[in-house]
């Protein structure tokens, strides 16, 4: 992208939004502000950038602010993928963000927009779906297929030749052992878990070895504000 014409906006002005602002700026992206639905954020400035309006303002970004690209910092899988798709409908580009210290094999098959933070590694013949986000020091081994909208938190390790289905969410420091075949759609792997067998769709597992846990709150799909 020609730096003179690059005008980018971050969706989400929370902690991850601030992180995106720092990393994107470090990498020479011209970020002009955030979109966020939080009422208290409106008309304020975070880390030197204004909140331009709620996320529904995606539709006016191009004409009002001459914005061409958006990055979505939202950690909730469903919302992140949804807003990326909405942005494209309004003619906005949704570039990848790959921190310069991340190592992505040229033989990784990238299916859409994804974000990867410092120190993460993806081995050859992995496949990465649209709207995925990997935090710092995440390791993804070879031949693993990651479907759209998945998230892996800091220092998680995902073994080889498995399938992470849509919206799978892997907590901080978790390990998913090679030999596991499937992490089911919308499952949640707790912090520090060691997963040694397949995980069903919508299951919440935690512990070593990981087991379904007694949780008083079901893992529900987040609501999306339009
Ligand atoms: C797994 C998780 C979603 C459960 O959250 P929750 O539904 O609020 O669960 P609770 O805190 O009510 O705990 C329920 C039970 O599971 C246990 N538990 C919760 N998280 C656990 C974990 N990560 N490992 C082992 N046991 C865990 C609790 O000790 C409790 O056990 P008990 O019933 O014997 O007392 C959450 O603890 C977790 O690990 N989230 C991931 C956090 C993370 O990685 N954040 C990164 C942000 S970038």
Summarize the structure.
With 226 residues, the protein is an alpha/beta fold. Helix content is 15%, strand content 27%.
Would you kindly provide a written description of the structure presented here, covering whatever features stand out?
The protein has 3 helices and 24 strands. The radius of gyration is 18 Å and the shape is globular. The protein has 2 domains: 8-95, Rossmann fold; 98-207, UDP N-Acetylglucosamine Acyltransferase, domain 1 (3 Solenoid), CATH 2.160.10.10. Strand 3 and strand 4 form a beta hairpin. It has helices at 15-26, 58-65, 77-89, and strands at residues 8-11, 31-35, 45-46, 49-53, 69-72, 97-98, 103-104, 109-110, 114-116, 121-122, 127-128, 132-134, 139-140, 145-146, 151-152, 157-158, 163-164, 169-170, 175-176, 182-183, 188-189, 194-195, 204-206, 211-212. The longest helix is centred in the middle third of the chain and has 13 residues, at 77-89. Strands 6-9-12-15-18-21-23-24 form an 8-stranded mixed β-sheet, covered by helices on one side. Strands 7-10-13-16-19-22 form a 6-stranded parallel β-sheet, with no helix packed on it. The chain has a 5-stranded mixed β-sheet with strand order 3-4-2-1-5, with helices on both faces. It is an alpha/beta fold and 226 residues long. The protein binds coenzyme A. Coenzyme A (COA) binds next to strand 23.
């Amino acid at each position: 992208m020609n730096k003179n014409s690059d005008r980018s906006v971050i969706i989400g002005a929370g902690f991850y939004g601030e992180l995106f602002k720092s990393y994107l700026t470090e990498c020479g992206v011209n970020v002009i502000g955030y979109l966020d639905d939080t009422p208290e954020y409106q008309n304020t400035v975070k880390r030197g950038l204004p909140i331009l309006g709620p996320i529904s303002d995606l539709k006016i970004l191009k004409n009002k602010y001459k914005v061409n690209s958006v990055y979505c910092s939202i950690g909730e899988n469903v919302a992140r993928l949804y807003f990326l798709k909405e942005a494209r409908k309004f003619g906005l580009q949704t570039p990848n963000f790959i921190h310069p210290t991340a190592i992505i094999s040229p033989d990784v098959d990238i299916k859409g927009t994804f974000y990867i933070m410092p120190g993460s590694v993806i081995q050859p013949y992995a496949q990465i779906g649209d709207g995925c986000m990997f935090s710092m020091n995440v390791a993804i081994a070879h031949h693993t297929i990651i479907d759209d909208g998945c998230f892996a938190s800091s220092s998680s390790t995902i073994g080889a030749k498995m399938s992470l289905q849509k919206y799978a969410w892997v907590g901080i420091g978790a390990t998913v052992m090679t030999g596991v075949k499937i992490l089911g759609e919308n499952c949640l792997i707790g912090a520090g878990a060691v997963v040694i067998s397949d995980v069903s769709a919508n299951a919440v597992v935690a512990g070593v070895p990981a087991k379904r846990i007694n949780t008083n709150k079901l893992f529900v799909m987040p609501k999306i504000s339009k």
